[in-house]
Specification:
Elements (H helix, E strand, L loop, with lengths): L1 H16 L5 E5 L3 H18 L2 E6 L6 H6 L1 H6 L4 E6 L14 H11 L1 E2 L9 E2 L3 E8 L8 H4 L2 E5 L11
Parallel strand pairs: 1-6, 1-7, 2-3, 3-6
Antiparallel strand pairs: 4-5
C-alpha cells in the first residue's frame, strides 16, 4: 500500500502545482484499513517536510477556531495539507451556510477560508496544497460538484498489505 499511496499523493501534488484544485478521498470500510492509510499519509508528509493539519468533522472542538481565526493561521503555514477525518459524514443543513462542512467544502473546492457569508471573512489559502478526506465513501453526504473535486484512493482490504516498512 505504501508505494501506491505515495504515488497517488505525488501525482496529486503535481496536479495541484499545475494549477488545478484537486483533493484526495482515502476510502475504506473500517478503522483498521483507514488507520494503515493514515500511517502512510503521515510518513509521506514527514518525508516531504510538509505541514499536516488534522481535523475531525464529527468532532466539535475545532469549530470555535474558525471564527477566532486561529484555524486560518494554522492553514496559512507554507506547504500545508489538511486531513479531515469523517469528511461529509454528517448531513448538515444545506440551508445554512455557516456549517462546519460548508467551511471545509470551501477550503477544498476554492482554497478559501470562510463560507462566503458575512460572519466569517473569506480569505485565500495559497499555502493549502490540498485536502485529504478520510472516510467510507458509502456514508458520505456530498454533492456531485464536491465529489468531482476529489480523486479516490481505495484502501486495499487485505491486512497483509499493511506492512509498515
Amino acid at each position: 500500500m505504501k508505494e501506491s499511496l505515495f504515488h497517488t499523493l505525488d501525482q496529486l501534488l503535481a496536479v495541484n502545482k499545475g494549477g488545478e484544485k484537486k483533493n484526495l478521498l482515502i476510502a475504506g470500510k473500517d478503522f483498521a484499513t483507514l488507520d494503515g492509510a493514515l500511517y502512510f499519509l503521515r510518513r509521506w508528509i514527514v518525508e516531504k517536510h510538509f505541514h499536516l493539519l488534522e481535523l475531525d468533522e464529527a468532532c466539535y472542538d475545532w469549530h470555535p477556531e474558525v471564527s477566532s481565526r486561529d484555524l486560518f493561521e494554522r492553514l496559512s503555514v507554507p506547504n500545508t495539507v489538511l486531513l479531515v477525518k469523517n469528511y461529509a459524514t454528517l448531513q448538515w443543513s444545506a440551508l445554512t451556510e455557516d456549517t462546519p462542512h460548508n467551511f471545509l467544502r470551501d477550503a477544498a473546492l476554492h482554497r478559501h477560508y470562510g463560507c462566503g457569508n458575512d460572519w466569517c471573512p473569506t480569505d485565500e489559502l495559497p499555502h493549502l496544497l490540498f485536502v485529504v478526506a478520510l472516510n467510507d465513501y458509502q456514508t458520505m453526504y456530498w454533492d456531485a460538484r464536491e465529489a468531482s473535486a476529489f480523486a479516490t484512493y481505495r484502501v486495499p482490504r487485505d491486512p497483509a498489505r499493511f506492512d509498515k516498512k
